[in-house]
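Re: [ENG-882] Designed sequences occasionally contain unexpected residues at chain ends

Forwarding the minimal case from QA. Structure tokens:
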């Protein structure tokens, strides 16, 4: 590995029609650790994640992964380079079993990989217990675990999660955040999560990036952002 950050975003701009959803965003994500992208509704969080993973086109700017320019790679190439995206709501296929959903996540690697499947099931015991059951029978928290497990099947270097707590009860949200902390501690991964639940996310993550109207308004150690009244009141709503 080079000394450079794993993921580098330089002057990234993206539009939805006439709306400038990202406005010259520059940030570095070092290897390993848990990072939060925060901000109000419409701040550009989802657009940032989707632009990083090739699901939305960049208007200008640059994204590099371990020094390699990936700015204009389509999503299916970005995943083979090591970026996995878990969309809002998880996007699991409810008619397929837990195991079939997991196998789909590994499809990018070209062959079934029982070792990675075993690792993922070991990380998420509820999925192991329900591996033959349709995903539609899982609870909300288990579906989110399945969505994360499916992304891990691609053996990504960076896991990008869009609102993993959305629609989950507070206790389940806490479990998902704890699980992401365990992932950071137990694996090779860099995890970037977009969250509306800023207080919960900052209590879990190492570092936060705050977007406001498409711009990077603040960033810092999560503990520092949590105790920074000005940033909390201005951008995070608590
Ligand atoms: P939320 O938490 O509400 O999802 P966000 O911070 O993820 O918000 P984005 O969804 O990235 O923000 O939206 C950024 C801006 O782009 C907003 O002004 C939004 O209205 C606009 N936008 C997002 N998606 C579209 C779309 N499909 N068509 C038009 N405008 C869009």
């Amino acid at each position: 590995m080079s000394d450079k950050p794993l993921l580098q975003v330089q002057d990234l701009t993206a539009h939805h029609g006439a709306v400038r959803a990202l406005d010259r965003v520059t940030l570095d994500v070092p290897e390993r650790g848990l990072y939060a992208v925060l901000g109000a509704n419409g701040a550009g969080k989802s657009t940032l994640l989707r632009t990083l993973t090739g699901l939305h086109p960049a208007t200008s700017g640059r994204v590099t992964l371990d020094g390699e320019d990936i700015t204009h790679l389509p999503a299916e190439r970005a995943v083979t380079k090591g970026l996995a995206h878990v969309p809002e709501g998880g996007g699991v296929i409810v008619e397929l079993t837990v195991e079939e959903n997991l196998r789909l996540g590994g499809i990018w690697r070209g062959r079934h990989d029982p070792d990675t499947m075993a690792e993922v099931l070991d990380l998420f015991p509820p999925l192991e217990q329900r591996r033959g059951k349709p995903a539609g029978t899982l609870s909300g928290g288990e579906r989110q675990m399945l969505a994360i497990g499916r992304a891990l099947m691609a053996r990504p270097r960076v896991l990008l999660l869009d609102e993993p707590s959305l629609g989950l009860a507070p206790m389940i949200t806490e479990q998902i955040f704890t699980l992401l902390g365990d992932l950071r501690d137990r694996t090779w991964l860099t995890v970037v999560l977009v969250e509306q639940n800023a207080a919960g996310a900052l209590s879990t993550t190492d570092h936060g990036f705050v977007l406001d109207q498409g711009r990077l308004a603040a960033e810092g150690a999560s503990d520092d952002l949590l105790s920074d009244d000005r940033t909390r009141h201005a951008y995070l709503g608590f």
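QA comment: On inspection the terminal residues look reasonable. The beta strands are 7-16, 19-29, 33-38, 60-65, 68-69, 83-86, 158-162, 190-195, 207-212, 215-221. Proposing we downgrade this to a documentation issue.
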